[in-house]
Structures are given as structure tokens and as C-alpha cells.
Amino acid sequence: MGRIVQKFGGTSVGSVERIQNAAKRIINEVNNGNEVVVVVSAMGKTTDELVRLAGEISKNPSKREMDMLLTTGEQVTIALLTMALHQEGYKALSLTGWQAGIQTENNHSNARILDIDSERINGLLKDGNIVVVAGFQGLIPETNDIATLGRGGSDTTAVALAAVLKADRCDIYTDVTGVYTTDPRAVKTARKIPSISYDEMLEMANLGAGVLHPRAVEFAKNYSIVLEVRSSMSDERGTLVEEEATMEQNLMVRGLAFEGNITKITVTNMPNEINALSDLFTILASNGINVDIIIQNVMNQEKTNISFSIDSSILSDTQEVLAENQDKLGFESISYEGNLAKVSIVGSGMISNPGVAAMMFKALSDQDVMIKMVSTSEIKVSTVVKQEDMIKSIETLHDTFELDARVPVQK
Ligand code: ADP
Ligand code: ASP
Ligand code: MG
To answer: 3-175: which CATH number, 3.40.1160.10, 3.30.470.20, 1.10.1200.10, 1.10.287.130?
Structure first.
């Protein structure tokens, strides 16, 4: 007998029919002799709708109350799905995140899972139940308050449960048939990838590929859990996320990721002192400002300019922190460039193939795309470009690295 965790995302439980369809998939696994734990998201676009409602009441709602509000979405789904399982004659029970023993750090709206007390779930499985757990939520033990795990966090609930329950499989059912070379909704030539390594998937997820929550991939890597990302609407095999991805010949780039809504900030004429960078970024970090790419330009012996990118949603917070600390940091002025996007290439083959970044830059410049910032790691190159150039850049790079041309590997 195996133990399986199945996760169904918002679209996959977006209507009564889809909830019944999810119930069928769960029942199939039970009929094959498996113990099944199910993790679900809120139905359809419920979470977005709740965010919108809160916005009508307040521009800056309390994070605690936001978590209280958003966790209701998943609670609706667990009850309905459990009823659908009962209707088919199966023993099942729904649990909220806290009933399932999921404990998080004290960080509303973006909490990490710290621990899971799996006693109750284990007992329920032993008694022959299908256990249906609300994704995206947990309890902060110090305050006894409900926390959410960040948008898209139900994936992380599923993988963390798979880890503590020592599941044999963790299947992520979503609205696409797997992980693609890039978002198939944005680029028509995107192709399904048969398998991708944890490290590549982690980069893709962190760089904007919303198909998996980055922390879910971290858990999967740390506990060696093989994930299969697949569609709840078809029986087609999905994408395996695992330690070593299947070798594909001459593979330099496995996928492309992109995200918009980026602002570049330049702090000009700071004193060119040894601790300039450390002072600036310590102040930003201690105020919770998350900075991405950093570039320093030493102007002369005395002065330096420092640019960095942030998510545009935190621009006003960043402006405030910089203004408050202008005297301390000694810079002359700040300039901003908004409406930017990050376009990235990811692939573990880059390590052994020099010139991949050069190919990327040439392809973009051939299309008159101006690159504003660059950052690299062993397996990715990210560029910041104008938002209006984002999709054109992705399409160009998809062609350049021949991502639609590779022969699918038979598994
Ligand atoms: P769920 O509600 O099932 O968690 P999400 O909307 O969170 O679904 O994630 C699935 C979506 O991720 C797809 O509809 C697709 O638009 C987007 N996506 C972004 N990048 C990729 C990619 N590389 N491969 C597949 N899907 C991607
Ligand atoms: N419902 C939450 C969201 O929309 C969590 C999830 O779906 O993973 O972000
Ligand atoms: Mg998701």
C-alpha cells in the first residue's frame, strides 16, 4: 500500500463539477489501495476576489485580518470536496491547516512552515479516512493566530505534508499539463518539459514561473520528494520535478521565466566609502525591503552611484526608508525607473557552456531590446528590460535557444 499526497489548485476545484472530478481522481488512488491525503486551494479566483473586497474597505488592511479573510477560501473547498467523497460512499474528513498540525513562523501573509504535528492525520489515515487539508494556511503557536504561506502557498502545504507523512508520491494537479519551457499562456510555442531538476525548478519558480510555489520546490529538494505537475483535466503524464532531470542533448537552457512590475532605483553620489554598500543595504533589509539585482558604479574616488531593483509594489515603502536615511547615508538624490520586467534563462547546462549569456544579450540587442540590469548565477541569467519588451524578449529567447525544437524524451 502506498501513501500519496494529491494537491488540487484553484481551477481544478473551481466549480461543483470540478470538485466532483477531483473526487474521482482521489477515489481512483484509494481504489488502487493507497492512503490519500489531499490538499486544496480556494475555488477558482476566490482568493483574488477576497483581496479585492478587502481593498474596498481599506488601502492598508491589517495583515492579521487579511490572513483571517483569505484562509476562508480554502475552508470552503475542503468541506465541499469532503462532502463529494462522502457522496461517493468514501470515508473522508476535512481539516483546516491548524487542525492538521501545521505550525508556522510569526509572519502574517508570508509565513514559512516550521513544523507539522502529523499525529492526527496519521490516526485518520489508519482509520481508513481520506484526509482533506486546507492549503496555504497554518497556525502561529506563540499567538494562536492563523497565518497564510504567501500566494500560491498550497503547493507548499502539499509538499511539506508529503515530507512529514513520508509519502511515496506528491502529485500537483493544476490547469496546465506540466511545467513548460515558459508560461504556455504567454508564449504559444512553449513546450512541456518531461522532467526538470529541483535546482532548475527552484530558479524558474523564484524568477516568476508561477506554476509552483518556490518553497514547495525547496521542501521537495530538501526531502527528496519527486513531484509530478499535471493536469486535473486529462490523463496525460505531467512533468517530473526530481534530483536529476532527464538528459537532453546540447541542453544549455531548459526554460525561461519572466515577471513584470519591477522598478529600478538609483541612489546617486553616495560617499565612496568602504561601508557604503553595507550601510545602504543593511538599512533597507532592516526595514523589510526586499532588493533583487544590485549594480554599483563608482563615479570617481569620492562618489559612487548604486542601483537596485525592487518589486514596484514596495516602491513607496522604499522611498520612505531612503528619505528618512538620506542624511545618514549621505547620498545626493534618488532616481527611479518603473515599468520594467525581469526576463531570465535557466538551465544547468550553462555551467559547462561559456557564452550563453553573450547569446542572450545578442538575441535581445538584435531585437532592439535595451538591457537595463543583469544578474547571473551558475544556472541562470536574468536581465531587466522595459515591461513593453518582456513578451517579445521571451519569444526571441525561446527561438534563440531552440526551446520548441527539442525532441521529447520518452519516459
Ligand atoms: P494552481 O491554481 O493550480 O496552483 P497556478 O495558476 O498557481 O495554478 O499555476 C498554473 C499557472 O502557472 C498556469 O496556468 C500558467 O499560466 C502559469 N505558468 C507560469 N510559468 C509556467 C511554466 N513554465 N509552465 C507551466 N505553467 C506556467
Ligand atoms: N488560494 C491561494 C492563492 O490563490 C493559495 C493557492 O492557491 O495556492 O494564492
Ligand atoms: Mg498555484
So the answer is: 3.40.1160.10
Give the residues surrounding ligand 2 with Cβ less than 6 Å away. Answer: 9-10, 41-42, 47, 73, 135-136, 151-155
Section 323-328 average pLDDT: 96
Report the pLDDT value the prediction gives residue 1, as an integer from 0 to 100. 80
Taking the domains of the chain in order of start, what are their residue ranges? 3-175
At residue 87, the 3 state secondary structure works out as helix
- Please report, in range form, the residues annotated as the binding site for substrate: 47, 74
Cell of 210: 508561477
**Torsion angle (degrees, nearest 10) of CA 75, 77, 79, 84:** -170
Q: Give residue-wise pLDDT tens across range 150-203.
A: 999 999 999 999 999 999 999 999 999 999 999 999 999 999 999 999 999 999
pLDDT at 247: 62
Phi, psi of 122 (to 5 degrees): -60, -40
Q: Which helix (H) or strand (E) holds 95?
A: strand 92-95
pLDDT for position 252? 87
**What are the φ and ψ backbone dihedral angles of 4, each rounded to 5 degrees?**
-130, 140
What b/e string do you get for 187-197 counting C-beta neighbours within 10 Å, with b at 16 or more? beebbbbbbbb
User: Closest ligand 2 atom, CA of 150?
Assistant: 9
From the CA of 12, which ligand is nearest?
1
- List pLDDT tens digits, range 38-59: 999 999 999 999 999 999 999 9
Q: How many helices (H) and strands (E) does the chain have?
A: 12, 18
Q: Which residue has the CA at smallest separation from atom 6 of ligand 2?
A: 152
pLDDT of residue 406: 57
Q: Of 290, 260, 280, 293, whose CA–CA distance to 373 is shortest?
A: 293
Contact (Cβ atoms closer than 8 angstroms) between residue 96 and residue 78:
yes
Helices (H), 88-212: 119-126, 154-164, 198-206
Sheet bearing 255-271, strands edge to edge: 294-298, 303-311, 255-271, 333-346, 380-386, 373-377
Q: Provide mean pLDDT across the span 302-331.
A: 95
Query: Ligand 2 pocket test: which of 70, 76, 212 has the largest number of ligand atoms within 8 Å of its C-beta?
Result: 70
Distance CA 241, CA 19 (A): 26
